[in-house]
Amino acid sequence: MKQRFGPHVLVFLAPALIVYTAFSAWPLVDTLRLALYGTDESGGMHFAGLANFHKLLFDAHWFAAFRNALVDNVEFFAIHTLVQNPVALLLAALLSVVVIGFAWQLILSPLWGVAEKLMGFVGLADHFQPWLGQEDTALPTIALISVWQFVGVPLMLIYAALIAIPEEVVEAAAVEGAGAWRIFWQIRLPLIAPTLGLVNILTFVGNFNAFDLIYAVKGAIAGPNFSTDLLGTLFYRTFFGYQSEVGSATMGAALATLMFLVILAGVGLYFLVIQRRLQRLAS
Does residue 135 lie in a domain region? Predict the structure, then answer.
């Protein structure tokens, strides 16, 4: 029997719709509106059209800051893609074939475990460098801290995809003589390709919205010498101001709009190109 869409459904949807509209959709629309306004010397606002975007993209000072933050964001995302997701894939693959209790026995064994060696690493003080204080190492160091912070999310997604693979498929490949390595590369990996794509796009969106870790470690200045400056920290300084610079809500809105367009372009490219190929690979 075909179910009808009754008014009671709207009652259940209304709270979520109201919250989403109030805290997500409306702020986004209002930010796009605010980006089209400018401020005069007295602090009054007036319609400025695309002047803020023209200033961001063609003024030497603003474009240099925007380009630096955008390049840092790409590097931040690249480190996550090349380190976090492969590590999550490796850990998920290991968890699918190794009993957790036995793995901890390997780690803590006094005879051939790795725990004692890891404790010995504390004595390698001569190799220490102020990684967070050097321009060429500060951003990779914070990115790796973020990898450690968020690696659990892709780990669980990939692990869930691995254990969802039908055992009949793996057993059939084993009967045909395929080894564990070949089964992983030719069967397991193609079947979880859509999940890997989802993990990458979630990583992309999360990294290009990153702010809190950079702010907590290096502050709004994103030092040293803006070497850890991401789009999120650049937006914070632009909107709220910093040191002797006065914040501008309209320029901040314009920058937030560009951030939104960058993320939208990346997500759109993913769904148009990469996701289709991953789906064909999985099928």
Answer: yes
pLDDT digits (tens, 9 = 90+) for 163-204: 898 888 888 988 888 888 888 888 888 888 888 888 988 999
Number of domains in the chain: 1
Q: Which long-range contacts (CB under 8 A, 24 or more apart) does 174-183 make?
A: 180/97
Calpha distance 78→84 (Å, rounded): 10
- Read off the pLDDT of residues 53-107 as tens digits, 9 standing for 90 and up: 998 899 998 899 999 999 999 999 999 888 888 888 777 766 664 554 465 446 5
Provide the token pair at 60.
Answer: 């030497």
**How many other CB atoms sit within 10 Å of the CB of residue 278?**
20
Residue 9, class by beta-carbon neighbours within 10 Å (0-12 exposed, 13-18 middle, 19+ buried)?
Answer: exposed
Whole-number Å distance between alpha carbons of 275 and 283: 12
Domain that holds residue 205: 61-282
Residues comprising the chain, all counted: 283
Instruction: Determine phi and psi for 71, rounding to 5 degrees.
Output: -65, -40
Query: Phi/psi at 31 (nearest 5 deg)?
Result: -65, -40
